[in-house]
Amino acid sequence: MFRRITLSALLTLAVFGSTFMPVQAGEARAETPKVAHRTVKIDGLDIFYREAGPKDAPTILLLHGFPTSSHMFRNLIPALADKYHVVAPDYPGFGQSSAPPVDKFTYTFDKLAEVVEKFTERIGLTKYTLYVQDYGAPVGYRLAVKHPERVTGLVVQNGNAYEEGLDNDFWKPLKAYWKDRTEENAKPLRGFLTLAGTKWQYTDGVRNVEAISPDTWTIDQTLLDRPGNQEIQLALFYDYRTNLPLYPAWQAYFRKHQPPTLIVWGKNDKIFPAEGAQPYKRDLKNIEFHLLDTGHFALEEDGQQIASLMREFLQKNVKK
């Protein structure tokens, strides 16, 4: 017996299928939305972003994590852009955006959020659903607290707003560095900036390593290896300590404003494990919760499922 497939799922499969699946001669398929690759000036910096979809449609603002960039959304963007306006910027120091040295730019999460805020205003985004992953959570939640009227919903993928899950072995060297910012304490953190460390983030916890493209860690590592970039990343490792004291304010935002929220979390992630996903249920009433059997970069292995879940969630909760 055939299982009923929703229109949302069919559209998602059509878009992803046009990217990954072979098409037989004469077979019709949906046209993949075109993605534009653009750059704007923000405070003298070139901020690169990917954009697709009709500008009069509901907007989704995709905020990437470490050590990647908007490249992590390369497949998700066209999977949503037939119906939504999708925008994904690169932060300063990441991807194709400017990466001034640490003595020329203050690499803090406050500053990254400030740049992203100005970016959204420059390109005319007045309302958006936030997709936050890893570093995208502290950037995005700063925006949400400051401008709750702009946020129409949240999609959370391995990004903490609670201290649960931040007590495992991964966080021990980071917390040592927060306590005493010395080169000796920085040495273990430099391991996160190597090819082995970057590849580990993409492959640990996945069901099938062969499904993960080596292009992912190769591209990220090439950018990490730029002169001065290790110092940029170490500055952000150190500043991550400033996020934890803000957790109560972010949780208060959840309780007061109750943004519709979709959790799509790679449950095998050792950086942001599933313990960090569960507490969202305490504060949010309109929440859809999915733990996926994959790792830190869940889009790499479960992008089709995430896109389908997003389409259904957005259809129910986010109107033009």
TrEMBL record:
Transmembrane segments: none annotated. Residues 58-302 form the AB hydrolase-1 domain. Gene3D superfamilies: alpha/beta hydrolase. InterPro entries: AB_hydrolase_1, AB_hydrolase_fold, Epox_hydrolase-like, Haloalkane_dehalogenase. The keyword Cytoplasm does not apply. Keywords: Hydrolase, Signal. The keyword Aminoacyl-tRNA synthetase does not apply. Pfam families: Abhydrolase_1. One of its GO terms (molecular function) is epoxide hydrolase activity. Residues 1-25 form the signal peptide. SUPFAM superfamilies: alpha/beta-Hydrolases. This is Alpha/beta hydrolase.
